[in-house]
Amino acid sequence: MSQLPEYTKGQLALRNGQDKPQIWVAYKGIIYDVTESRLWRNGKHYEHWAGQDLTDELADAPHTHEVFKRFRAVGTLK
Ligand code: HEM
């Protein structure tokens, strides 16, 4: 079984679409790479910013966590 690498909050924060080219979002301990999404361009998605744990903020969204299905899990959040 493959195990995903662990990242700290600080490492995740750099993948906010501003400091590094990658755009990552954490949900329930899993980090997803949403770099290819046009809806997350520059790390911004409506009023939400990438590079952090957005578990609690999903409640504000008009969609469920199903949206993460098409993205690759790149790690877990420490
Ligand atoms: C005001 C709050 C939000 C609004 C209005 C919003 C709106 C949308 C819309 C309209 C879509 C595309 C249609 C769909 O897949 O249903 C979408 C996709 C998505 N949303 Fe949100 N969203 C919000 C919050 C969030 C939050 C907090 C997260 C992360 C926890 C999130 C993650 C995603 C992802 C990963 C996609 C898929 C993008 C793609 O397929 O390219 N959204 N959102």
Helix and strand arrangement:
Blueprint: E1 6-7, H1 9-13, E2 24-27, E3 30-33, E4 44-45, E5 48-49, E6 72-77
The chain binds protoporphyrin IX containing FE (HEM).
The site of protoporphyrin IX containing FE (HEM) has 19 residues, from strand 2.
Give structural attributes:
four-stranded mixed beta sheet, binds protoporphyrin IX containing FE, Flavocytochrome B2, Chain A, domain 1, mainly beta, globular, 78 residues, 1 helix
What is the number of domains? 1
State the major sheet: 4 strands, mixed
CATH architectural arrangement: Roll
Q: Poorly predicted ranges (pLDDT <50, ≥5 residues)?
A: none
Shape: globular
What is the distance, rounded to the nearest whole angstrom, between the alpha carbons of the first and last residues? 20 Å
Taken as a percent bin, the fraction of beta residues is 25-35%
CATH class, please? Alpha Beta
As a whole number of angstroms, the C-alpha radius of gyration is 12 Å
Order of helices and strands: EHEEEEE
Q: Can you tell me the CATH topology?
A: Flavocytochrome B2, Chain A, domain 1
Bound molecules: protoporphyrin IX containing FE
What count of helical segments does DSSP give?
Answer: 1
**Strands of the biggest beta sheet: in what spatial order?**
1-6-3-2
- CATH superfamily assignment? Cytochrome b5-like heme/steroid binding domain
Structure report:
There is one protein chain. With 78 residues, this protein is mainly beta. It has a single domain (6-77), classed as Roll (Flavocytochrome B2, Chain A, domain 1), CATH 3.10.120.10. Helix content is 6%, strand content 26%. The chain has one helix and six strands. The chain has one helix spanning 9-13; strands spanning 6-7, 24-27, 30-33, 44-45, 48-49, 72-77. Strands 1-6-3-2 form a four-stranded mixed sheet. It has a two-stranded antiparallel ribbon with strand order 4-5. A hairpin with a 2-residue loop joins strand 2 and strand 3. The protein starts with 5 loop residues before the first strand and ends with a strand. It binds protoporphyrin IX containing FE (HEM). Residues 25, 27, 34, 37, 39, 45-48, 54, 57-58, 60-63, 67-68, 70 line the site of protoporphyrin IX containing FE.
